[in-house]
Design goal:
alpha/beta; single chain; six-stranded mixed sheet; 11 helices; elongated; 43% helix; Trna Endonuclease, Chain: A, domain 1; 272 residues; two-stranded antiparallel sheet; 2 domains
């Protein structure tokens, strides 16, 4: 019987709590062979081990299945399994079932990778007297066009964010660091305007070139605490806002220079 990710949840593979006293993957690769062999034999396959560098080969009605055994999921295993796809489309990776396995984003991403590579995944439960084989993923063609259609909204979000940024204000690969997003950029531009010209209304800020759609909501929501609502329709720069311009100095300098060029060619009435 074959199992999907949902079946695994029901069968207990995805249980979050397991005994922490037992070491994980204490088994040898050879320990995985008997239960995997018996699983395919019960389905009518002729099974042989170590055939031309393939850990396990199963054959029935003209159909060849290759299974690679490993103690852990690894890049080596993926490479080995992909190499076996030169011989057949039906390639599985078989590993011991993790003792701790929550159906979280990490596993969703891994399952997507296996499906993307058109590889199957088998978990072998070594707990108890009788090992159990559970097929998490069957190898099948991956429909990339369908996948992209399903993720069109996320693609549009990436494009919108990319096109909304003025400069490259982040360092690729950064972690645990406040990133310069398009929203933060817009807030910094508003802060620079208030720093240079003093308290202003949303309309006056838009006249200076701030985002025509976001300016009012950025001031009203004051998500970062950078602005002071002085009176109806009038906003100033808070102390936190002044400090933020020092933190994001490179981007602030970009907008200061932009505003200086504007002020040379135009005069702004900030009192109305």
């Amino acid at each position: 019987m074959y199992f999907t990710g949902k079946h695994l949840e029901k069968s207990g593979v995805m249980r979050k709590k397991r005994s922490s006293s037992e070491p994980e993957n204490k088994f040898l690769e050879t320990d995985l062979y008997p239960p995997v062999r018996d699983f395919f034999v019960r389905q009518g396959y002729t099974v042989r081990s170590e055939v031309k560098d393939c850990d396990v080969s199963a054959f029935k009605d003209g159909q060849l299945i290759i299974i690679e055994l490993k103690r852990n999921l690894s890049l080596e295993l993926l490479s080995q399994a992909v190499k076996r796809q030169k011989l057949t489309d039906l390639v599985y990776m078989a590993v011991p079932k993790p003792q701790r396995m929550a159906w979280n984003q990490k596993w969703r991403d891994l399952f997507h990778l296996f499906r993307r590579l058109e590889l199957g995944l088998i978990f072998v439960s070594m707990q108890g007297d009788i090992p159990r084989v559970e097929v998490a993923i069957d190898p099948q063609p991956f429909d990339r066009s369908r996948s992209m259609v399903q993720n069109q909204r996320k693609r549009n979000q990436v494009l919108k964010e990319l096109q909304s940024r003025t400069i490259d204000g982040n360092l690729g690969g950064s972690q645990r660091k406040k990133l310069v997003t398009a929203y933060r950029e817009s807030a910094i531009e508003i802060a620079c305007c208030l720093e240079m010209f003093g308290p202003m209304s949303p309309k006056q800020l838009r006249d200076l070139g701030t985002d025509p759609k976001k300016t009012a909501s950025i001031l009203r929501d004051n998500f970062y605490g950078w602005f002071d609502h002085l009176e109806r329709g009038l906003y100033g720069l808070s102390q936190t806002g002044k400090e933020s311009l020092r933190i994001y100095n490179d981007l602030a300098e970009y907008y200061r220079e932009k505003l200086q060029k504007l002020s040379v060619n135009r005069s702004f009435d900030t009192s109305s």
